[in-house]
Design a protein that fits this description.
The chain contains 14 helices and eight strands. By secondary structure, the protein is of the alpha/beta class. The protein has a single domain, classed as Glycosidases (TIM Barrel, Alpha-Beta Barrel), CATH 3.20.20. Helix 9 links the parallel strand 4 and strand 5.
Length: 390
């Protein structure tokens, strides 16, 4: 073979190696040993993403992400398109991210993320219209300091919150909102303090209502409902809190309030839980939430692996999904959202590893287990194909 032939062969090999390069699927091939699958290496085990499998089980599956996560990693886009049909912005729709120190709303970052969600074919969940943390305290404290008397200060704060709710509902098209977040104390009474550090812009809206936190919550739901009607929109309105799976007093307080307020159309549990969580606790919580007659949602799911776990992370996540699907009627299913996608960006920090993907966006055992569970519950790949899930 002469030198020209050798050169031609080398260039041909190089060209073939370069073909198809571009944005890569972060996990393009099936894992070598899928979890809880009889066949050790079925050729099309990941033909369907989690979003399709969840949809086949009449479940809306979501994930949270932040601006910096998405802007800095193309892998996240690939995973969202494949696995999650709904998205929640981790911070970018909160008061201190939208309202500046002059009280002006700046939607630029959130609108950019809305564009990304649309590119991924994902629905938007609004989080949150009222919280005890991440308020624009520079603006709100200025309103208070300028007021001539306490009553005037309270009126200014209430007007600021009503304006925020109205503007958010007008501006964003969502399928649902967290109208209020974490408004109950652990003893089941209305919150009168914050559990976040002051540098998270702590501000208790309820301090500026004569009826305290309850009046703030009543007003928030009424304002959100009126804004939806004014702008011709429809969205579910949720009350959201944490520790409901193991705290009966808090669970009962939230559910009782929801039952008495017709403006509340959904109840949700964050479920930042550990691997020692019992199935009985999950079932008890969901059964009580179902009895409200409202939509029932798991809003911020993550499961960090314990040092001496009673169960594996995969066991717990599959149990949560199974009990949810067995307990919550289809018409009341508000969906399940993971609070993040990859362990790389969990709010819990390094080493907790609470999500379905590892720090390199590789599927973990918990992903494999959930995929296998949802696929089997949907009737297998043949049933999905017949139903047009492809």
């Amino acid at each position: 073979m002469n030198n020209y032939n050798l050169l031609f062969l080398f260039l041909s090999i190089l060209l073939c190696a370069c073909e198809g390069k571009g944005k890569l699927d972060p996990d393009p091939t099936p894992d070598p040993k899928p979890y809880v699958i009889p066949d050790p290496n079925p050729p099309s085990v990941y033909k369907y993403g989690l979003r399709e499998l969840a949809r086949a089980n009449n479940l809306l599956l979501g994930a949270a992400f932040t601006y910096n996560e998405y802007a800095g990693d193309d892998s996240l886009e690939v995973v969202l398109k494949r696995d999650f049909e709904a998205v929640t912005f981790g911070n970018e729709m909160k008061h201190d991210c939208i309202v500046n120190s002059s009280g002006i709303c700046n939607f630029f970052i959130a609108d950019t993320m809305v564009g990304w969600a649309k590119e991924c074919g994902s629905q938007l969940f609004g989080h949150t219209l009222g919280w005890h943390s991440q308020q624009q305290t520079d603006y709100l404290n200025a309103l208070i300091s300028r007021a001539a008397a306490a009553d005037a200060a309270a009126a200014a704060v209430r007007a600021a919150h009503a304006d925020f709710v109205d503007r958010m509902v007008q501006h964003f098209d969502t399928y649902a909102w967290d109208v209020v977040n974490e408004v109950f104390a652990e003893d089941g009474n209305w919150r009168t303090g914050s559990v976040t550090p002051a540098n998270y812009h702590v501000f208790l809206w309820g301090d500026y209502y004569k009826g305290g936190t309850k009046e703030f919550v009543d007003t928030a739901f009424r304002t959100a409902r009126e804004a939806l009607a004014k702008y011709g929109k429809k969205a579910d309105l949720y009350i959201n809190d944490y520790n409901l799976e193991w705290n009966p007093a808090k669970l009962e307080a939230l559910c009782s309030y929801a039952e008495k307020n017709p403006d509340v159309t959904g109840v949700s549990s964050q479920m930042h839980c550990n691997t020692d969580l019992s199935e009985a606790a999950i079932k008890n919580m969901l059964e009580r939430m179902v009895r409200t007659g409202k939509k029932v949602r798991i809003s911020e799911l993550d499961v960090p692996q314990g040092n001496i776990p009673t169960n594996t992370q995969a066991d717990v996540i599959v149990s949560i999904f199974k009990i949810y699907l067995d307990t919550v009627p289809e018409k009341q299913r508000g969906g399940i959202t993971f609070w993040g996608v990859s362990d790389k960006n969990s709010w819990l920090g390094k080493g907790k590893n609470p999500l379905l993907y590892d720090t390199l966006y590789k599927r973990k055992d918990s992903y494999r287990a959930l995929h296998a569970f949802l696929l089997e519950r949907a009737g297998g790949e043949e049933a999905l194909h017949l139903n047009g899930e492809n």
